[in-house]
Amino acid sequence: MSGLQKGAIGTLLTGGLLGILLVAVVFGGEAALSTEEFCTSCHSMTYTQTELKESTHYGALGVNPGCKDCHIPQGFKNFHLALYTHAVDGARELYLELVNDYSTLEKFNERRLIMAHDARMNLKKWDSVTCRDCHRDPNPPGADAQEAHKKMKTEGATCIDCHQNLVHEEVPMTDLNASLAAGKMVLKPDDDEEDEDDEEDEDDEEEDSASDVTASEEDDEDEDEDDDE
Questions:
Q1: Which structural domains are found in the chain, ordered by start?
Q2: pLDDT tens digits along 66-94
Q3: How many degrees, rounded to 5, is the angle at CA 171 between CA 154 and CA 39?
Q4: Under 8 Å between Cβ of 166 and 128
């Protein structure tokens, strides 16, 4: 075997070993960055960790979900989403952690809605893939639930469009389709506001109906007067 051939084999072996090492670093790094210990190493995330442990999701299916189970897509087929989340969202959140004061829960709550909306938008873009990892039956029992789930086909809805405020402290719900279209956060109308609008519409209809009845009665009176003449 010539020296050139030996050099080529050595180069291939070295490249192969470096490739294996790189894959190990990438996968190992992703796993390390997905641990709850790493997530809660930022002080502000201890607030949401406490909320998670007090929520109905914790232990509901015989397991205790961590941050990654909802906020980082799992599995090899979603590995690119996990890397993107760590690289882009992680860098952004680290920057925001440094420039914002989260030393108290009250100060954290000042930005809670923005952070909740960002998390919802991620789930929307992922088609709620992390929800579906556990909740694999999209056809729940009950007529109302089945009717609501039809929106998944008719309106392009996904789990997070309706199922918000399940784990962390409640904040106003956001309209994710409208937010995507507008390029900014759009809040869903409150149920009370919708009820008020419905009541106003009903009042308007009643007023219109009353006006029609009054006008009809006046016309009848005019006709009676004409007949008397």
A1: 8-135+153-182 (1.10.3820)
A2: 999 999 998 889 999 999 998 899 899 88
A3: 100
A4: no
